[in-house]
Amino acid sequence: MKKIVSIVLALALASVACLSLTSCGNSAADYTVGICQLMVHDSLDQATEGFVEGLTAALEAEGKTVAFDTQVAGEANLCTTVVNTFTAKNVDLIMANATPALLAAANATTEIPVLGTSVTDYNDTFGGNIPANVSGTSDAVPFDEQAKMMIESLGLAKGDKVGVIYCTNESNSLIQYNAVKELFEAEGIVVEAYTFSETTELQALVTKAASESKAIYVPSDNTVAQNDSVVGTICTEKNVPVFTSYGGEICYASLAIDYKELGVKTGEMAAEILLGNKTPADIEVETLTPTVVYNEELCATLGIQVPQN
C-alpha cells in the first residue's frame, strides 16, 4: 500500500509540473530536473510544489523551459534507487526533498548539481564538509524559541516532563532532540526520548509517551509527520498538548516555516544554477523566518489559553 500511495503521489506531483509547463516530458525542454521526495506528507508535498512553481517562474522569465521527473521513494533506503535513475539520465539538476534523499543524491554524483530542501542541518549531515555540488534550503527553526514558547504557553515548571517522539532512522531528528533536551533541562524540565524504527510501533509508543508526559514535542521528523494523526488522536484523548516543529493540525501551537515558500526559494536557487549564473558552491544554505501559530480550537479543547497578541 505504501508503494502504491507513493506512485500515486508521484504521478500527481508530475501532473502539477505538467500543468505549469508545456515542456513536461518533452525532450525539447531546455533543462531536465529530477526530484527525489522521501515520502508522502504535507510538508514535503508543499516543498516540492513550491520548488516546481519557483523554478518554472524563474526560467520562464528568461524564456527557458524545464521538464521535471518527480519520484517519491517511499522510504529512505529507496532514495538511492530513485537518484540512480536521475544520474543514468544525466539530468541537469537533482532536487532532494528531505535528508535521506539529499544524502543519496550527494553519494551518487559529484558532477550533477544537487539542491536539498526540508533538510535541518547540512553541516551535521555531511560531517562539516558539504560537497561542492550541494546546497539548498534548511527547515531549521530556533530551538531555543520553540522551547521557550512551550514553557511559557504551558506553564511548564521544574520537574515537569516533556516527551520527544522521533524515528531513529532520521539523523535530523536526533539533532533536534539533543538541542531541545539541553534547553529544557537547563530549566529543570525532564526530557525523555520515545523512539521507534517501524511505524507499527508508533501507536503503543505514543500511548506510553502521553501517559508519562505533561507535553509532547515532535521535531521535523518525516516519519512521524506522515503518521501524525496517530500522535494527535492519542494525545488529545489523554489531554496532552503536542508541539511540532513543522506545524500541522495536531499541534496546539507552532513556531514553524512555510514549506511551500521554502520550496520556492529552492527553485529560485535552481534557476541560478541552470542559467549558469552560480554554482552550488556559490550559494549559501538558506532558511526562512518562522511564524507563530496557535490552533485556537485545539487549545480550547486542551484548556490552553491563547495569548492576546
CATH topology-level fold name of the largest domain:
Rossmann fold
- Sheet/helix structural class: alpha/beta
Give the name of the CATH superfamily of the largest domain: Response regulator
Q: What is the alpha-carbon Rg in Å? A: 20 Å
CATH architecture of the largest domain: 3-Layer(aba) Sandwich
Order of H and E elements: HEHEHEHEHEHEHEHEHHEEHEH
How would you describe this protein?
It is a single chain. Helix content is 45%, strand content 19%. The protein has a five-stranded parallel sheet with strand order 2-1-3-4-5, sandwiched between helices. Strands 7-6-8-9 form a four-stranded parallel sheet, with helices on both faces. The protein has helices at residues 2-20, 42-60, 79-89, 99-108, 122-125, 143-154, 171-185, 202-212, 222-226, 228-237, 259-274, 296-302, and strands spanning 31-37, 66-72, 93-97, 114-119, 134-138, 161-167, 190-196, 215-218, 242-244, 253-256, 291-294. With 309 residues, the protein is an alpha/beta fold. Helix 6 packs across helix 7 and helix 8 (202-212) packs parallel to helix 10 (228-237).
SSE map:
Elements: H1 2-20, E1 31-37, H2 42-60, E2 66-72, H3 79-89, E3 93-97, H4 99-108, E4 114-119, H5 122-125, E5 134-138, H6 143-154, E6 161-167, H7 171-185, E7 190-196, H8 202-212, E8 215-218, H9 222-226, H10 228-237, E9 242-244, E10 253-256, H11 259-274, E11 291-294, H12 296-302
Parallel strand pairs: 1-2, 1-3, 3-4, 4-5, 6-7, 6-8, 8-9
Antiparallel strand pairs: 10-11
